[in-house]
Structure formats: structure tokens, C-alpha cells
Known about the structure:
The protein is of the alpha+beta class. It folds into 2 domains: 4-130, 2-Layer Sandwich (Alpha-Beta Plaits), CATH 3.30.70.1730; 135-176. It has 7 helices and 5 strands, in the order αβαβαβαββααα. It has helices at 4-23, 37-49, 59-69, 93-104, 123-130, 135-163, 168-176; strands at 26-31, 53-56, 83-87, 110-116, 119-121. The chain has a 5-stranded antiparallel beta sheet with strand order 2-3-1-4-5. A hairpin with a 2-residue loop joins β4 (110-116) and β5 (119-121). α1 packs across α3 (59-69). The longest helix has 29 residues, at 135-163. It is elongated, with a radius of gyration of 25 Å.
Amino acid sequence: MPNAKVLAEKQAIVAELTEKLKGAAAGVLVDYKGITVAEDTALRAAMRNNDVEYAVVKNTLTRFAIKNAGLDELEPVLNGTTALAISMTDPIAPAKNVEDFAKKMPKYFEIKGGFMDGRVMSVEEVKALAAIPPIPVLRAQVLGTMLAPISGLAYVLAQVVEQKGGSPVAAEEAAAE
């Protein structure tokens, strides 16, 4: 039986991890067996740049934390080496970062499962989430879709003006006055 000091430290770790799991937008559990120090350093730097917390976690402590957070369905994947990638703000970032590294190192880096907004996700769902483009790209696509009809109308009007013998520049100057 551990002494009171060690037990208190472990309880504090579980409490902190529970709060992170409850407050996270999303998280991914991975098996990181066999990666080199250089690969791990590159992974951690990429995670930090995308506001994703990445840490190696003890399965026993994580098991308590996921039970406290209501993510009991993740318990079966808690075996072997386990690391946890969590984002408090971007639900896509952990999946995207982990999937990028899993593609680069398929033998050594494997997705075990994940969660988003309190719901447990399978490996396939995590990979599907990782395939979603980043938020700036999605915003650009939406804006492009919204601007397409206006751009098309402007193009057609410019063609009509040219066919009638006018100049698109003269039409623009006349409209500005």
C-alpha cells in the first residue's frame, strides 16, 4: 500500500487529468511504441504549435480519470504504452496532428481511440475527423461559395457591357459617379 504522500500525489494527478478530460474539446489516445527521441520531439513541437497538449500517461491513473469524466468506453484501449493528445479549443487539432504522425510512422505510432465533447470515438471516427480541413480552409471555402454568385453576376454584366460596345472600365467609372 502506498504511503499517504504518494497516494495524495496520484489523486492530484487523477483530479487534474479528470478536469482536462471534462474540459477538452477533443482528445486522442495513441500507442507510441518505438519512436525515437527526435521523432517524439518533433511530435511535441507540432502539437504545441497547434495548441494541443501531448503527454505520456500511466494507464492506471488514466483509467481512474476517464471513469470520473464519464468516458468509460475508452478503458479497453488502456494497455501498453499510452499517450494522450488533448485540445481545449479545437476539436479537430488532436486528431489531425496524431493522424499525420501515424501516417509517417505506421509501425510505431498507432491511434487507439478518442473522444469529442464527452462522446467516445472509434479509431475510424478519429481518422475521419482528421480528414476535415482546418478551420481557416473551411472558412475560405464557405466565403468562396457565398461570393461565387456575385462574382458570376459581375462577370456576366461586364460581358454585356463589352458586347454593347462599352468598356468595362468606363462602366465601372460611371457606376462610381
